[in-house]
Amino acid sequence: MSDTQQKSEKFQPLSAPKGVPDYVPPASATFHAVRSEFVNQAHLAGYQHIELPIFEDTTLFARGVGESTDVVSKEMYTFADRGDRSVTLRPEGTAGVMRSVIEHNLDRGQLPVKLNYYGPFFRYERPQAGRYRQLQQVGVEAIGVDDPLLDVEVIALADRCYRSIGLTGFRLELTSLGDRNCRPAYRQKLQDFLLDLPLDEETRHRAQINPLRVLDDKRPEVQEMTADAPLMLDHLDAECHEHFETVTGALDDLGIDYVINPRMVRGLDYYTKTCFEFVHDGLGAQSGIGGGGRYDGLMAQIGGQDLSGIGFGLGVDRAVLALEAEGVTLDGVDQRVQVYGVGIGPEATKKMAKLIDELRRNGISADMAYGGRGLKGAMKGADRSGAHTALVLGDRELESGEITIKNLENQSQKTAALDAGAIIDAIFIPEDEPAE
Ligand code: HAM
């Protein structure tokens, strides 16, 4: 572009891609606090951080999540990189965790391997309230042990995550999807039942490739037709039945409420045995605030040992919306600074920059006015910053060696020596409590 073009052209402002939310201050503080609290709870339960790539070989998701799922067949952001490899922005976290666990032999050590991750995931869905194309999750995976008490740990952890941020208006829905021994016979039975119904072409096709998905059809006429469909829960073999009984019994022992939803269908193919969803009624159509379950065949499917695992993904975007729906505000998430410095004139401003740096070294959050603003403008900046204290330094103060400390909550003023220690004492030690 030539210089003249650059000068004459006025660029149009740009928006974020469709369906991709921004979180900007001050609301971003809640988003950040929710995600941190979920991660904190996962660490309390012994899940260690794993940092994974945002994109992977497309094959990973095709094999891991399942070609017949909407996520893989319709919603992936897949493209060829410059070396003509097909890569995909991760639509979910479990397959990537499994790939990494196998690649780094974590499954050859102590089991279960307990991992925690968070970050953005990408699904080309139709955007609406609470349904985004870039969504944020905090997830955990506990890999290598098929113990129903581990299922309970994972479910209880999700429940604690929500409660720890103050949510109460949600419920836990639970079911068992059986395993490789009992599901094939059930699947056949369900398919036979469905193919006898007068289904439309598309639904008939779905019944052929993924019959369980038909149970999740929200259209009343389909729901009516499938009201008497056989249910997986009634066709569990003895082992899966016992597994499920142990899970529900231990949840009862922990006092965690749940409802059994035998028609629950998860959008990913890898699930076996225990499956669960946390549902919030304040969110309209996108009511799932988190979900997960056990996956018996996934590791082998990705080329590893034949080990089982269980995990969850909690939707951070939806948890934030659920807080809004319940009118809950989080305490202590304010990211605004405590102290704001105002320097008048170049010398005083230079000195202020040094003082502010010293406050920060002492763990006090602090900011200052930049750009050579006059006293009035800079004080406005102090008010807007949300700080409780302003430090004011001009030539007069520089000369006298004393700085003005203004309490922005009650407008009272005092002075202190031009020294970080004296300033900190003056701000934080009450008048009637002499500094040591
Ligand atoms: P998922 O149910 O597909 O599971 O996603 C988990 C959560 O992510 C959902 O409950 C929802 O809160 C949130 N979520 C999903 N899609 C969107 C969207 N388009 N917009 C906003 N939020 C969304 C999984 O991803 C599994 N990997 C969970 C898991 C881990 N299972 C076992 N281990």
Protein architecture, described:
The chain is of the alpha+beta class. The protein folds into 2 domains: 26-181 and 237-326, Bira Bifunctional Protein, Domain 2 (BirA Bifunctional Protein, domain 2, 2-Layer Sandwich); 339-428, Anticodon-binding domain (Rossmann fold, 3-Layer(aba) Sandwich), CATH 3.40.50. The protein is 39% helix and 21% strand. It contains 17 helices and 16 strands. The chain has helices spanning 3-8, 28-44, 58-64, 70-74, 94-103, 148-164, 183-195, 201-209, 211-214, 220-225, 238-254, 298-301, 316-326, 346-361, 375-385, 395-400, 420-428, and strands at residues 48-49, 55-57, 77-80, 86-89, 113-122, 134-143, 170-176, 259-260, 272-280, 288-295, 309-315, 339-343, 366-368, 389-393, 402-407, 413-417. It has an 8-stranded mixed beta sheet with strand order 1-5-6-11-10-9-7-8, with helices on both faces. The protein has a 5-stranded mixed beta sheet with strand order 13-12-14-15-16, with helices on both faces. A hairpin with a 5-residue loop joins strand 15 and strand 16. Helix 2 runs antiparallel to helix 6 (148-164), helix 2 (28-44) crosses helix 13 and helix 6 packs parallel to helix 11 (238-254). The mean pLDDT is 94. The structure holds histidyl-adenosine monophosphate. Histidyl-adenosine monophosphate (HAM) is lined by residues 92-94, 123, 125, 130-132, 135, 137, 139, 141, 267-268, 288-293, 311-313, 315, 317-318.
Concise synopsis of the structure shown:
The protein is an alpha+beta fold. It has two domains: 26-181 and 237-326, Bira Bifunctional Protein, Domain 2 (BirA Bifunctional Protein, domain 2, 2-Layer Sandwich), CATH 3.30.930.10; 339-428, Rossmann fold.
